[in-house]
Hints:
The complex is a heterodimer.
Chain A lengths: L1 H29 L5 H67 L5 H27 L3 H30 L2 H89 L16 H47 L5 H15 L2 E10 L6 E8 L10 E2 L4 H9 L3 E3 L9 E2 L4 E2 L3 E9 L2 E10 L5 H117 L7 H32 L7 E4 H18 L3 E6 L6 E4 L1 H18 L4 E9 L16 E8 L23 H5 L5 H12 L2 E7 L3 E9 L22 H11 L2 H10 L3 E5 L3 H13 L3 E5 L2 H10 L5 E5 L7 H10 L8 E5 L6 H8 L3 E4 L4 H13 L1
Parallel strand pairs in A: 10-12, 16-17, 16-18, 18-19, 19-20
Antiparallel strand pairs in A: 1-2, 1-8, 2-3, 4-7, 5-6, 7-8, 9-11, 12-13, 13-15, 14-15
Chain B lengths: L2 H32 L8 H14 L5 H10 L1 H11 L10 H16 L4 E6 L5 H12 L6 E7 L2 H9 L1 E3 H13 L10 E4 L2 E4 L1 H4 L2 E5 L11 E6 L8 H14 E9 L14 E5 L4 E4 L2
Parallel strand pairs in B: 1-2, 1-7, 2-6, 7-8
Antiparallel strand pairs in B: 3-5, 4-5, 8-10, 9-10
Helix pairs in contact in B: 1-3, 2-4, 3-4
Amino acid sequence: MLNYLIQQLSYFFEVHYNSFRLDLNKLIERKCGMRLKTKLFLGYVTILAIMTILFGVSIQNLDQSNRNVEKTQQARFLKTKYTETIKDEINNISRFYRDLILLDMNSHDFLQTIHAIRISRGELEAALDSREALAEKENIKNLLHKMKNINRDYTDMQERCIALASSGRKTEAGQVISEGGETRSQILKLMDDLYNNEDEAMSGVLQSSVVAYNRALRFLFISLLLTLLVGAGITVWMTQRATRDIRKVTAVMNRVSLIQEHIDLPRINIRSKDEVGEIAASFNEMALSLEEHATQEKEFIEEIEGQNWLKSRSSEITALCQGIQDIKTLAHLLITKISPMVEASYAVFYIREGNGDKLCFKKLACYAGSSQEFAREDLRPGEGLVGQSALENRTIMLDRVPGDYIKVSSGLGETSPKSIVILPVAFEEHVVAIIELASLQAYSPLRLELLEQVSKDIGVTINRVEAHMKIGTLLKESQVLTEELQSQSEELQLQQEELRTFNEKLEEQYKHSEKRATELERMKAALEESSEYKTEFLSNMSHELRTPLNSLLILSQTLAENQEGNLTPSQVEYVKTIFSSGNELLTLINDILDLSKVEAGKLSIHPTVIDLTGMKSYVERLFLPAARQKKLDFIVQMDEVLPDTICIDEYRLLQILKNLLANAFKFTNQGSVTLRVWKTEDQVVTKKDLFINAKRVLAFSVTDTGIGIQKDKQEMIFEAFQQANGTTARRYGGTGLGLTISQKIAALLGGFIEIDSVEGQGSTFTLYLPDQYVEKAVMTDEGSPPAWAELDGDVSTVVQVVDESPIMENWNARLEGKKILVVDDDMRNVFALTTALENRNMQTVFAENGKEGIEILQRNQDIDLVLMDIMMPEMDGFEALQSIRQIPVYEKLPIIALTAKAMKNDREKCIQAGASDYISKPVILEQLFSLIKIWLYR
Amino acid sequence: MSSAENRTITEAKSCDELEAIEINLLLEGIYRYYGFDFRNYVSSSIRRRIWYRIRAERLKSVSSLQEKVLHDPCAMERLLSDFSIHISEMFRDPLFFKSFRNNVVPILEELPFIRIWHAGCSAGEEVYSMAIILHEEGLYHKSKIYATDMNEALLKKAKDGVYPLDKMRAYMDNYLLAGGTKKFADYFEVCHDKGIFQPFLTKNIVFAQHNLVTDHSFNEFHVIICRNVMIYFDRVLQNRVHGLFYESLCMSGILGLGGKEDISFNNYSSCYEGFDREQKIYRKVK
């Protein structure tokens, strides 16, 4: 029944499943806004509900059948159990009866067995009752009834048996048992029937339970299937719905992933308002924002690319400019690079030159410049657009270039540009260059920006390059200067060196001169001694000299008078000549003595008061005859402002005047001789210091119109024994002492003599004297040696000594007479040496080898020096040296080694062998002699 | 030529250059420090000797030899002995000696006194040869032979007059070829395995150290023999040495040179006439 129900239900479900499903769909669809959640929920719930129902039913079913079965089983079980019990007890009882017989009636076991029989009987009866109670079927009941009846019989039998057995009548008991056997077998047969009934019933029950089980199982299966189907259906339906939307989403999303640029994204078209719908909506929003982003990004990238382009171009240009060191190359490079960058077809580069007023912009480089050179060469600031741009430092753009402006051309044709940009390049606010670019298309803002940026860099670069060029020029200049400096410093150094050497030399000289000074002191002392001697000598001699001379003069004069007239005219001439010669000699002696006295400071001045007029007449008287004789005019002029008298040594003054006048007359053949006496104060320019103390200065000038004196001889004539011309003495006579004496006397008087002469015209000798004689120290004349000194031979040598090194004389003297031993086997040498030595008055001995040398040395004890050759036979120089040095006498003997060997340590070898010194062959005689001198001097 | 070859050639060139510089420095250093002047010796022979010494001292370069030589006088001695040529034999080129004996000796006979100079006598073999000839011709008593060499060690050897005996035996042939008339063995004494020249031969020989490069003339001679010495000198040095000989030779004096040498290529060639050109014997005529 239940089965049927269940089956019906399942069929019902199965058949109406689809419609149910569709109904459900529609229900759901009607409510469009139903969310996925709800749908899912609904779906699951439905499934669960169905499942629950079915299971519930199933369970109930099962439970029911189970209970039934249980009940049945329970009953069955009991029945079986009672039956079993019956069977068992019957068996037991029979067993016990048997035992009873066997057992002793008096044993414990016997009683126990009886007890056991009774217990078993009780059990049996109980069981029978119970079974009967349970019996349902009629036949079983009958059976049991029968059994009970039989059992009663049996029981009686049992009791009899027991009684018998107890009474000991076992055999009777046995008989009873045998009689009762049939009863027992009836019970047993009934038992078996019962048992078989029980078995049948049992199997019947079992079978029915199996059937029920099968049924339930079947029901379960069906419900399971049902559930599955329903569930699947719902699941599929729902899944489909859900996945449909999701698939839409996925599809769109997939499409998106394929799209490169997210500018235009697909949208998900889902109208439902469930979760997927929300997803779709979100997705759409997201797509929207993605699109926005993508668009932004695109714009951004474009911008960045633009910037990149700018920067890389700009750095290209900067990189280009590195390393460029001259402005022209730079301009070319820039213009060539920039023009294509900004797509210009024609460009010009102007550079600033000059400063201030001369500021102008010169064309430096061109890009695609045509041969006609349209571009202007130079522009001033403010001149044209370029100038304007330069002035304002502002980029100027020409967008619509008229057709006739310029033409951009290539090989195939030409056209006018579309736009022109004039770009100023500035550095620190000053425009340093202008670039003008013409292009066939408009300049994009990016390109303009590039230009602006680049202009700054170019400005810096131009500045740098210009600076560099300037530095280059400056460097060259400084290099030149440095070289000059260097050479100058080298010169300075050289000079320094020279100065230093000079200094050293000076120091040497100084030392030398100090030495000399001391020598000179000594010499002077000696000189003074001798000069004193000389003065005495001279003064003595003057008398001695004059006496014979006087007699000569007198006698010759007397003879010249020819009083007795016995001399021939020629003889008279001779005598006159003797007289004049003697006169001259006398004059000379006088002069010399005078000079010597002046030199010795022995000339004394006796100032007296002179009357000038008197002097004048005296002079006139003295020289008129000479003037008349030579047919010369002789004029004596005395200035008016002269004092009448002067205080001066008359004799000396007259001496000077006489000398001057005599000279004048001597050297004048025509014209006049004038003596003028005048006072001068300011006219004495030279030697003013001489006349510091004088009140008045007088001048005595002797002017003649004679032969005059050459300028270069004018000083010379004042020197002793000097006349202007070597032949003067022959032609004009005179000793040459006059002027010297006059000069010296003038100095003594406190004045001096001045000369003014023109050769061929005449001379003027002027004597300046202070009118008061001032006692003054005698001024010795520096320079010329005392005239009288020259007369004396000894003294002359002493004087020579002052100039020459005094030592030399000693040496030359020392060499003479020395004995030299020459030991050499080279005859040429021997010959040369001996000759040279003997030329200097030295004695020589020679030997051919060392042995001979030693022999000779020993034979001649007076040998002063030995010249020893080294390479000799018999005994060479080294051996000889050593042997000689061993002789004590000759330890210090100077031995000079002569050797042809010139190697570095040969000198040392000679010295080590014992030589004092060494000179190498070929011998330079001068060197040798110096060496000899040194060694002899020591 | 490939660039590799080019490179090796340049390398080789610079190597040569470097070596030349090093050798110059070495010789200059030796000259300045020790005074021996090898700067004008023929470069190839000097170079060979230098390298020989470098290898013998187990060094690697010329500069290292320079260092050693300048700081170690014994090394200098060794180098010096390398530089000195001491290949010689008695009556070397016997025909020279024969010619000398036959042609020069008659001239010398007339002189009252003969002075002969052996320049670069090495270990003295040729000197003794000359002595023997003079002795045989009866001129020895009035002769003086000056034997000079740069190397003191060799000079000492020459002075000692000791030579290995087997060599002496070899010299005998030379002696005979040079026109020897006596028994060669008479001239020396045998002692162990050495032969020592008799004292009568050394009597008139003066041994002295003299350096042809640096030293000057020390006497005037009738005969100057300088054989196989100047082949190691360069042109400059040869001229110098010839000048020295010219100064040291009397008029009509005899100059004897080595077989490979010649008078013709120096400044003094016009001063000499050929006496026996084949044997390189010349006579000074002006």
